[in-house]
Amino acid sequence: FENRQRGNRKVDELNQRKTFNGEIGKQLLILVISGVFIYFGAKYTIDSIIKISEILQIATGVIAVTAVALGTSLPELAVTYSAARKGNGGIVIGNVLGSNVFNTFMVMGIPGLMATLPFPDSLINPGLIIMIVATALFLVVTVDREISRWEGMFFVLIYIYFIGKSFGLM
To answer: Does the pLDDT at position 71 exceed 60?
Structure first.
């Protein structure tokens, strides 16, 4: 009887390994395919930014700092919105901090390793100024360890101002 149980356990372990190995293979395949889509998506995004900026006669940096930034941030917005509705502020704040730290150091750092990246004046004002203001405001509103609705509204209004300023509407 014990030998049968041990045999069954070994069969179960083998089945679990097969399932595990099959799942790993499936996930690696999805990862590779996703990477290919990201590569081509990035290429077409860059090409589109250049064409849109030429058509609208707007600096490519302005399109990147607005439309591209919005597009890449929508998944984060969905995650943080869901977390906020569930009352999980840790995910919201962690996402904001983690994303900004990653973008600042890795998204700028890795391309900087490949080539010198000049900053166009159109990005310094208002982009860099708004980023500094946003960082300072973030520090101020988190002193009490919470972000209220009016503080959230204030952040949204600053973003609207930033978009308007970027396109020369303000």
So the answer is: yes
Residue 23 contacts residue 82 (beta carbons within 8 Å): no
Cα 98–chain centre separation:
9
Contact present, 146 and 89 (Cβ < 8 Å) = yes
Read off the pLDDT of residues 28-64 as tens digits, 9 standing for 90 and up: 898 899 888 888 887 887 888 888 888 888 877 777 7
pLDDT in tens, 152-168: 899 999 988 888 887 77
- Please report, for the chain, the start and end positions of each structural domain, with discontinuous segments joined by +: 1-57, 58-170
- pLDDT tier for residue 5 given thresholds of 50, 70 and 90: low
How would you write 32-98 as a 3-class SS string?
Answer: HHHHHHHHHHHHHHHHHHHHHHHHHCCCHHHHHHHHHHHHHHHHHHHHHHHHHHCCCHHHHHHHHHH
What is the full DSSP assignment across 136-147? HHHHHHTTTT--
Query: What whole-number distance in Å separates Cα of residue 21 and Cα of residue 15?
Result: 10
CA gap 85, 71 in Å, rounded: 22
SS3 of the chain: helix, strand, coil, percent, to 5:
85, 0, 15
